[in-house]
């Protein structure tokens, strides 16, 4: 029996295995090359400027003020104009005077400080000055005060004038008795009403009429005689009042107005 001849060169199975391995490697390489042409899947950009909408984009998408519909105003939002109030005229004053009888003086002016004139009638009734005050209610004058002043044979004047610096004027009547007697009576604003302006202290304490046979009133000051004198040359005393804290307050006594 002859011996098996010795093999020379690589084993056939080994060669086949190497060929298969090379083939697989070539196939994988080809797939890798072909797959590199595809675009990668877009990933979420973590940066602030990724795919988020910018303020400009948001503003562009939102309706502008001009394009947004304007809501109809509600009743509360609708502007309303105040109802105009009729102002008093000469006819209204005449009607008030006719209603409340004849007067020696009829004057108008803002007494209560509300910007609308009151009307004042002044006359002599039962040897005394009497005034009637009317306030405008938007349509007519209505009486708000009827009051007495000082003793009088005649009412020489009636005026509405600011004597104390408080909004609204004072009502001042000047009345006379005989040839020597002369006094004034004063009314004014108090809490939106018209009341007497009475003195505090001095010879006219508690009264709203000042003077016997001589008196003067100026801005913030009243100087009034305290007694009657038969002779003009006789020494007369006068009490001086100053307006302070809502009252005519006694300040001092002088002689012959000095």
Care to describe what's here?
It contains 3 helices and 14 strands. It is α+β, with helices and mostly antiparallel strands. Strand 7 and strand 8 form a beta hairpin. It has a domain of 166 residues. The strands form 3 sheets. Strands 5, 6, 7, 8 and 10 form a 5-stranded antiparallel sheet that branches. The chain is rod-shaped. The N and C termini lie far apart (180 Å). The N terminus is likely disordered. 16% of the residues lie in helices and 36% in strands.
Strands, helices and their partners?
Layout: H1 12-35, H2 55-61, H3 90-99, E1 105-109, E2 118-125, E3 128-136, E4 141-151, E5 154-161, E6 170-177, E7 181-190, E8 193-196, E9 199-200, E10 209-210, E11 215-218, E12 221-225, E13 237-244, E14 247-255
Parallel strand pairs: 9-14
Antiparallel strand pairs: 1-2, 2-3, 3-4, 5-6, 6-7, 7-8, 7-10, 11-12, 12-13, 13-14
Entry keywords:
16% helix; 36% strand; 5-stranded mixed beta sheet; 5-stranded antiparallel beta sheet; 258 residues; disordered N terminus; alpha+beta
Distance linking N and C termini: 180 Å
Average pLDDT level = 81
Structural class: alpha+beta
Low-confidence stretches: 1-6, 40-53, 55-61, 63-67, 73-78
Task: Give the radius of gyration.
Answer: 54 Å
Any idea what the shape is?
A: rod-shaped
What portion of residues belong to β-strands? 35-45%
Concise description?
This protein has 258 residues and is of the alpha+beta class. Helices cover 16% and strands 36% of the residues. The chain has a domain at 90-255.
